[in-house]
Design a protein that fits this description.
Elements (H helix, E strand, L loop, with lengths): L15 E5 L2 E4 L4 E4 L2 H4 L8 H11 L12 H12 L5 E5 L2 H18 L7 E5 L8 H7 L2 H4 L9 E4 L4 H7 L4 E6 L2 E2 L5 E2 L2 H14 L2 E4 L24 E4 L10 E5 L20 H14 L4 H22 L4 E7 L2 E6 L3 H10 L2 E2 L1 E3 L3 E4 L7 H19 L1
Parallel strand pairs: 3-15, 5-6, 5-7, 7-10
Antiparallel strand pairs: 1-2, 2-3, 4-12, 8-9, 11-12, 13-14, 14-17, 16-17
Bound molecules: pyridoxal-5'-phosphate (PLP).
Length: 390
């Protein structure tokens, strides 16, 4: 019989029934240290008391009204995001792919409204990931995501990530925007050099293009700053955000300057659920915690300690961990054995990790981990690598 849940995922055979902080408990009673955070989503850990309270309170008041009316929660969350970023304005949606769709539409509309109706194309990077909609698989440009879904949506060019000359050479009179992840996530935790990202800004300015940083994965404290662009000294024009924004509640946002967003007037874009009161309660609560003075600095401090310990570990097992890379709590272990094999063994030993391209095992722990969780993760990693290297 065909599975009743469509078999679009290669799922590990484990299910969870409860979570607290960095820990999950499975239905068969085992305890796991969650260094995947549901793919960089539960960045404040599971059941953070402030988030639980905010959502419970909102659940008893009002869930949904639609965007036909003002939503005070949106006004509040937008004000917080605007106050803490380059952005002037925010569109709320439900996922990372939708946030990228908004960014793509915004870029095209910006040039259309400027009278440059032929500026429709977006230069993206090879190895990129922007989501699984028809538009965002075209933007990602990866054969494994596009195969079987032709025709591919036109309007996306791809150049190697990190290669400025290739990017500049790809700019044509049809180019509307540049779209990159500051640190490629699904591609295998590949940090963009700050100098490269700065030069993308310069190229965008020189040719009148919009610069889009997809911060769906890098955003919300993942790299040690609220957003990864803060490491670069430059700002994008448009920034899709999601994953960590709701702490586990599905919510996305597309942040932009007023200039970039000028074309998205009433009727130009929309979402039934986007930014509903429940989603805004969750996002507001996440921002409350992340913007507490010292929170992100503390997370960055522990991330540095984790990096140091992982470097030592890689030194002890160089055949199995060939490289440790990443920024903040966004870490890639380049594996010398199939990453799926290593992940399965880590899971069996109680540590949850996430796979990525380039045979990488991703560690995306919640930003609340401290010494105890780091020590436990290192114990499990050390034990697992010892077993594997026998
Ligand atoms: C996960 C991810 C997306 C897609 O987000 P969804 O919520 O799965 O649609 C887009 N861009 C980046 C960089 C991501 O990591």
């Amino acid at each position: 019989m065909f599975p009743m849940v469509m078999p679009t995922y290669a799922r590990a055979d484990v299910a969870f029934e409860r979570g607290e902080g960095a820990y999950l408990w499975s239905t068969d009673g085992r305890r796991f240290l969650d260094f995947g955070s549901g793919v960089a989503v539960t960045s404040l850990g599971h059941c953070h008391p402030h988030l639980v309270r905010a959502l419970q309170e909102q659940a008893g008041k009002l869930w949904h009204t639609s965007n036909l009316y003002r939503v005070p929660g949106q006004e509040k969350v937008a004000a917080t995001l605007v106050a803490n970023t380059f952005a002037d304005t925010v569109f709320f949606c439900n996922s990372g792919a939708e946030a990228n769709e908004c960014a793509i539409k915004m870029a095209r509309k910006y040039h259309y409204d400027s009278g440059d109706t032929d500026k429709t194309d977006i230069i993206c990077a090879t190895g990129a990931f922007h989501g699984r909609t028809l538009g965002t698989i075209a933007a990602g440009g990866q054969e494994k995501h596009l195969k079987g879904f032709a025709p591919v949506m036109p309007g996306f060019d791809h150049v190697p990530f990190g290669n400025l000359n290739a990017l500049r050479a790809a700019i044509t009179p049809q180019t509307a925007a540049i779209l990159v992840e500051p640190v490629q996530g699904e591609g295998g935790i590949i940090p963009g050099d700050p100098d490269y990202l700065q030069r993308l800004r310069a190229a965008a300015d020189e040719f009148g293009l919009l610069l889009i940083f997809d911060e769906v994965q890098t955003g919300m404290g993942r790299t040690g700053k609220l957003f990864a662009y803060e490491w670069t000294g430059v700002t994008p024009d448009i920034m899709p955000v999601a994953k960590g924004l709701g702490g586990g509640f599905p919510v996305g946002a597309c942040l932009a300057t007023a200039k970039a967003a000028k074309g998205l007037s009433a009727g130009a874009h929309g979402s039934t659920f986007g930014g509903n009161p429940l989603a805004m309660a969750a996002a507001g609560a996440v921002l409350d915690v992340m913007l507490e003075p010292g929170f992100l600095e503390e997370a960055a401090h522990w991330a540095e300690i984790l990096h140091g310990k992982l470097d030592d570990l890689a030194g002890r097992f160089p055949r199995i961990i060939q490289e440790v890379r990443g920024v903040g709590m966004m870490i890639g272990l380049k594996a010398g054995i199939p990453n799926t094999e290593l992940q399965a063994k880590l899971l069996a030993n109680g540590l949850l990790t996430i796979g990525a391209g380039d045979n990488v095992v991703r560690l995306l722990p919640p930003l609340i981990i401290r010494e105890a969780e780091i020590e436990e993760a290192l114990d499990i990693l050390t034990r697992t690598l010892s077993e594997v290297s026998k």
